[in-house]
Design brief:
Layout lengths: L1 H25 L2 H5 L4 E6 L1 E5 L6 E6 L6 E7 L14 E3 L4 E3 L4 E7 L5 E8 L2 E5 L2 E2 L8 E3 L3 E3 L7 E3 L8 E10 L4 E7 L3 E3 L6 E4 L14 E9 L4 E9 L2
Parallel strand pairs: 1-9, 11-19
Antiparallel strand pairs: 2-3, 3-7, 4-5, 4-8, 6-7, 8-9, 8-10, 12-13, 13-16, 14-15, 14-18, 15-17, 18-19
Length: about 240
Amino acid sequence: MRYIIIIVVILGCYSCKNDDTSILSENSLAALVAQYDIEIDNVIACASGSKTDENTIIAYAYPRPGASNLQYFETFSTDDDKNDYRNYTKVSIEATDFFNGYLKKFTRINTGEKWVIITFFEDNKLHLSNPIRLKHLSKPTEFSETVTVDTMLDGMPVFGWDDGVFNDNKIYFQVISDVENNFISGTYTFEKQFQYYKLDNVVLNITQGTPPVLNSSNQFNFTLMGVSEDNWVNLFIEKKFTP
């Protein structure tokens, strides 16, 4: 009789473990990937720290027109294999507007560093970002206003900047917006210089249509993100300017 009780207890524990695993797998990125055709490296996304709280991270994504159902997945720690979707679990947080909705962002408190993947649906496919390495503790994002603005050419100012504390930036994302934070243009360069709206050194352009010439009687905002190879924002510059 004692042996029967022991077997029942063991089987009961095993059943509980299987139920837990099943619950976790339903929220895993691997389970989602298994259900749909996927496009890898097809979501423009990165993440930064916060100005005010060392444990807060902000993940940014560009939802192309037609994209829907943005979702945020993260690993338990950076020790997990970033390329194994079984290590990513969905976190149920809502994406909020950035630049009045042209971009989206996820804000989350994380006491540990992790890998993050952002997904959305487009054209009946699941699109995934490259893994984003959170570094809010080991490499806190540097926030600055230091940028040169050359306004010699009317309506087409030239912006120049230098790397900050960390110099492992691989690409730079520039946004021009108006005083109400409406998005005007968004571009990526490898060089630490950008001229509005000249695309000679632009390697990626997320601007829809051709933006207007900037009126020299108005004020605008320049936002820059210096992004490392693993999609962490080392440098975040915000500067008001008049062209």
